[in-house]
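The data are quoted verbatim here:
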Amino acid sequence: MSIRRELTLRATHVLVVATGIFEDSEAKLTIREAIEAAAKHNLFKILIDCRQLNGEPGIVQRFDLADSISRYYHQSRIQSPGKPFIRLAVVGSEPLIDRDRFGEVVARNRGVPIKVTTSFDEALQWLELDDVD
C-alpha cells in the first residue's frame, strides 16, 4: 500500500491525513471513504491533509481523480437529499498539488465545492474552521 491514511471524525469535520507515495486507486479510495464518512455522520466539511504525501500525478491521473471525486460527491448528494453540501479542502505540496490546480478546476466544473491549496491556513479558511481539533 503506497498511501497510508488516517481518517478521523471531528466535531465539525472529517480529517484525513495521507502519507506515503501517491497511487491512483488508493487516492480514489481515500476520497470516497472521506465523503462516505461525512455523509454518514452528518459532517459537511472534509479536510484532506496530503502534506506528507509524495508524488507527481500526470494530467490524465489528475483528471481521472477529479472526475472520480465528482462522481462520489454527487452520489452522496443523491443518497442524502436536503442536507447541506459537503465542502472539501485538499492541502499538500507541489508537485503533488498542481501549480495550475487542474484537478480543482475539473472538479469545480462538475459542481464540487473544493479547494486545492498548498496553504494549510487557506484550507482552514475555505472550510471556515478555526483549527483541526
Q: What stands out?
A: The longest strand covers residues 45-54.
